[in-house]
Specification:
417 residues, alpha+beta, Rossmann fold, Uridine Diphospho-n-acetylenolpyruvylglucosamine Reductase, domain 3, five-stranded antiparallel sheet, 37% helix
């Protein structure tokens, strides 16, 4: 369907097949899918999950690995949009599981039809389509498919949910209602953040303290939640009750002597509220592999570029780590030190930095430190797991989209922050 849709607009799609390697048959199944795609003239790649496979929580680990493989390929290929095949039955199962865990309204909205992660937009165009309709489409096209036997494994909670289809239908209906409400709040939160918040390339967020009190309570809570996710790098936000207590404390004491939550410090900096990384939560040092993008502390993309013909195997590999007080003192001796002194004192020691032995090479937000001639080429960028605010997005039929946006129309004017 994606192939036909893109072709109608002169575009191309590439199919990505993930082989998790958890069953002996998975490799042959991936190759069979690749053969089907070849017959239909669709470009494709098989991505293999290699390395250690945990003995417990395997579904969560496989999901994490799958998204990492898919997102990694898209970024390397310069692809912005990744279409996922989740359908209405998947949505219903997700909502039912979250309801069992007593999730709040956002959780009960289920999977988002559009979600933005670092450098990539996830699209789920089939959330309103029942699985049976998709199977009927395959039958009509004469296309076989493969059923994953792990979907029937009794040890997984989703297997039991699939035996109760009426409940699934109700859950999917509730998800649609909650999703509409969540999307409306997301748009309002994005507008507030676009007007009030500032993200620094060094990896912290600020906004004027008085604007938080002026915002509607739910918008203020969501803005705070988003900022904690960006700066703290955690996949899931803290519980709603903890967010509420933090917001109450900030509104009651605008001077904010300092609090911590979700790997972040929240404190006053002049007339602003500052949200920065909690030093104790920062990831340990990471040694860099030549010409490979690393994602350190769930927030920074870093790459050491090496020309292989000029590569010295005996040279020590650079590492990325927190700058520390010693690094801050060294940085002050360079020209970039002036910019560093303009940063909030609370963020200095926790800045991402790259070192070779005892030589400081680069600092996030400041770039290279000292002379660059003859030194490793380092790229260090703030790239958190998710944007501060996602851009509402919709694919509209050509006849309904205003010129010149005949192919893709945005939901409103707010770009990703």
């Amino acid at each position: 369907m994606a192939h036909r849709w893109a072709g109608a607009y002169g575009g191309l799609v590439t199919a990505l097949i993930v082989d998790h390697g958890l069953r002996s048959e998975s490799g042959a199944e991936a190759r069979e899918v690749a053969a089907w795609l070849t017959q239909r003239g669709i470009r494709h790649h098989i991505l293999i999950w290699q390395g250690h496979k945990p003995p417990t929580a395997i579904q969560a680990a496989a999901r994490e690995a799958r998204y990492a493989l898919l997102a990694g390929w898209c970024r390397e290929a310069g692809v912005l949009h990744l279409l996922l095949g989740h359908h209405r039955d998947d949505q219903a199962e997700t909502v039912a599981l979250r309801a069992a865990r007593r999730s709040g309204p956002d959780g009960l909205a289920g999977m988002a039809a559009v979600r933005e992660i670092a450098g990539l937009r996830l699209l789920r165009p089939l959330l309103s389509v029942p699985k049976e309709r998709l199977l009927a489409t395959l039958r009509a096209a004469g296309q076989a498919w493969i059923d994953d036997p792990s979907n029937r494994a009794p040890r997984f909670a989703r297997t039991h949910l699939r035996q109760r289809p009426p409940a699934a239908v109700d859950a999917a209906g509730r998800a649609e209602v909650n999703a509409e409400a969540r999307a409306a709040l997301d748009r309002r939160t994005a507008a507030w953040l676009a007007a009030s918040a500032r993200i620094d390339p060094a990896g912290f967020v600020t906004w004027p303290r008085d604007t938080l009190a002026e915002a509607p309570p739910e918008i203020a809570r969501r803005a705070l939640q988003q900022a904690l996710a960006v700066v703290g790098g955690q996949e899931y936000p803290p519980r709603r009750a903890r967010q509420g207590r933090l917001l109450e404390a900030l509104l009651a004491a605008p001077a904010c002597p300092g609090r911590t939550l979700a790997g972040c410090r929240i404190l006053a900096w002049g007339d602003d509220l500052l949200i920065c990384r909690e030093p104790a939560a920062i990831a340990p040092p990471l040694r860099l592999t030549p010409n490979v993008w690393h994602h350190w502390d769930q927030r920074f993309a870093v790459r050491w570029a090496v020309r292989w013909q000029a590569c010295d195997d005996a040279a020590p590999q650079p590492i990325v780590r927190a700058l520390g007080e010693g690094g801050w003192r060294e940085c002050r001796g360079h020209a970039a030190g002036g910019a560093l002194r303009g940063l909030p004192p609370a963020v200095r020691a926790g800045l991402a930095s790259v070192w070779r032995d005892e030589q400081l090479l680069a600092v996030a937000g400041l770039g290279p430190i000292g002379p660059t001639r003859g030194r490793p080429a380092i790229t260090l960028r703030f790239r958190p797991r998710r944007p501060l605010a996602g851009a509402p997005f919709g694919a509209l039929p050509p006849s309904s989209a205003p010129a010149p946006y005949q192919r893709i129309a945005r939901g409103d004017t707010f770009a990703s922050i």
